[in-house]
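Pasting as-is:
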Amino acid sequence: MVRVTTLMALAVPAGILLGLGLWTLAGLVPRIGAARLAGRVAPYVADISEEARDLLDRRRSEPLPFVGGLLAPLGRRIRSALAAVFGGDDAVERRLRQAGWSLTVEALRGRQLLSGSAGAALGILVAVALARSTAVSPVLVGVVIVLGLAVGVLLPDQLLAAAARARRIRIAAELPTVLEFLTLSLSAGESVRDALRRVARTGNGDLARELGIVVAQVNAGVPLAAALERCADEIQLPALTRTVEQLLGALERGTPLVDVLKAQAQDSRDDAKRALLEAAGRKEIAMMVPLVFLILPVTVAFAIFPGILVLQLGL
């Protein structure tokens, strides 16, 4: 019976990973020499020749498709579990849209799987290092590994939520300026579609890019009202939703759009001021920390130190 040591326990998975890596590199090496005549002709006669189809269906001896095919059912089950824990695909897709990321839901789940695997591997390394230095109970080792796995799985979702929240804040900050620009364009006699196109072409912010998507959808045949409502529903920003509702209502009733957009721009600026005051009120205690523990001691030191020095010199 072979005694399994810590070095051997680490060497076996390291050897497997090394073999898969070398196999992958060998599969990526380009073939030397010209391709065979059958391989060059097969794509053009695949619809009428069964041998050509068989030739094209042959897979190269690479480990990634093989390992991916073996782990695909397990990956689907893990993605289903992640969807049950972090919300459905609709919620994740909405956050991706709010963050402006071009990833798909499947790609994000794949990132979570890779990040969880990396976190578990890091937890295993930490547990092995702790076990080599001191006597550690198996429960603590399991806790460290599970903690690394949980942190790795949660990290992409938290980064996505933070990116979506930051982008919505930027859109809210850009909204008054964009509305004033739209007001100026409409006052110059342009239509709503031309004004949106001008803002999308001139601006370089997140809201300008969203309006560019709206203009592209309108050019593809989507009604302007539907495109604006879809944009507001996907971003889910109260100020933007209110602006779209007022704009569409003004278009239906024939109300002057300039006055409506001016009022919405002023309301957006008032909301920004109110949000700034609320944030200052919430952070008032946090703002006192550097004042009490940094600025005040330094001020007292500067005030008292000269007097103490004079007393010492006088004595």
